[in-house]
Amino acid sequence: MVQLGIRGVERVYYWRLFFWALFRRPRLFPLAITLAIMGFHFRQVTELHVS
Description:
The chain is mostly helical. The protein has one domain. Helices cover 82% and strands 0% of the residues. It has helices spanning 2-7, 11-24, 29-50. The chain starts with a helix and ends with a helix.
């Protein structure tokens, strides 16, 4: 959460997704956060192997 929400370049999008899911789709909140973390992981792996 610290890496995505505070230090990451995508922090604006993370917090928008965080609050949108929390208030508009609370049942999807855990899935939204899980997918945000997975997306971060895939970006890191791609940077490591492609760049």
